[in-house]
Amino acid sequence: MRKELQKGEPIVKEKLYYKDAYIQSFTSKILKQNEDANGTYVVLEETAFYPTGGGQPHDTGTLNDIEVTNVEEVDREIRHYITQQINGSDVNGQLNWKRRFDHMQQHTGQHILSAAFAEKFGILTNAFHLGRDTATIDLETPELPMETALGAEELANEIVFANRPITIRWIDEAEAKTLPLRKEPTVKENIRVVIVEDFDYNGCGGTHPNYTGEVGPIKILGWERHKGNIRLEFACGWRTLRIMHEKQTVLKDAVRLLNSKESDLPNKLEQILTSQKEMDKALRDANDKLLAYEANELLEKAASLPSGKLVAAVFTDRSMQDLAKLSVALTQDSEAIALLVAQTGDNIQCVCASGKAVEKNMNEALKSALPLIEGKGGGNPLSARGGGKAVVSAEAFLEKLIAGVSE
Ligand SMILES: [Zn+2]
User: Fold this and answer.
1) CATH second-level architecture of 14-95?
2) 101-254 belongs to which CATH class?
3) 205 CA distance to ligand 1 middle (Å)
4) 96 C-alpha vs ligand 1 centroid, how far in Å?
5) Looking at the whole model, is its pTM more than 0.85?
6) Could you tell me the residue ranges of all domains in the chain?
7) Fewest CB within 10 angstroms: 31, 104, 128, 281, which?
8) What is the pLDDT of residues 53-104, one digit of tens each?
9) Sequence-distant contacts of 74-78: CB under 8 A, at least 24 apart
10) Which CATH class, in words, describes the domain spanning 286-406?
């Protein structure tokens, strides 16, 4: 049966992952099965499943082929949350090794990267988060120059490629005081120290490989300011390769689409953006010219009213922006009255505008016609806009507007 921890006891017996972080499968007796707020769980005599803790996410896998979805240490017991009850008294446990080894790589990579920032630049790490795609550390510095980031990354990778041993020691408070630990230990006994040879001493309860080489390449991906510190994103090992592959795919697509060399991509994109801006401007200018031309043509055919020169027209599928611009061009003529109606699907919109010499009030003309289309809108005596539903035809609505400026 299990027993309480004794002072100085180096290893918790049931924690196989502390005996050997590489155990992927094991057999064990079941101590109990029960339920708590998180679901059905099983407690084993010994286990290789690592529970959530110390910035390292829990393992997943199976117990007698039944899925283990979560592992947490609660009240000094390791609870394996399972999708259904297990029959019998023994289990065969299988870890999702890919997930665990990934955690070992990111987690140990973090030790090394944080130590590199501290060793080379005196910058301390005060938080670590292991996410699904990348990991982050929060560095105690208000800013991070590129050379500093690259310098730390280089040292971290030197430590990786030197393939230094990573060892674990269980020590007490007195011995902890003699070691250059990165942080004050949070416990007084059974302090677990992870040592990267001649480089880093760190109190940690996570799982680590035996050599730094297994961490694989450490790559800083970016950083940003976060609450007065720098939050730095990085990846280690297989993740670095996966991210590299994803970036490579994006780059290759861009190279193909832009028919450019990889190193010329930024220049090529800049050229395209500049030329697009120029084209947009040219298109706007041409459109304005076209509107001026259209305005002149409409003015030539304008009906002569006592109140002014009436330009009244119905358009289909024309934007309000376009109508507004056309009305501006039309009312350059101080005697012009422009009543422009556009129908788009079930909606009717309109612009009513007049030149400076016209005395009719466009806002009033619009407001008297809007009820016909259950519409809303407004403006000032010289220019008003509105819109509503096509419950009458656009032509009928226009007639109403014309009546408003004819009286
Ligand atoms: Zn660790």
Assistant:
1) Beta Barrel (2.40)
2) alpha beta
3) 6
4) 19
5) no
6) 14-95, 101-254, 286-406
7) 281
8) 888 999 999 999 999 999 999 988 999 999 999 999 999 999 999 999 999 9
9) 74/36, 76/4, 77/31, 77/43, 78/14, 78/15, 78/43, 78/44, 78/47, 78/49, 78/51
10) alpha beta
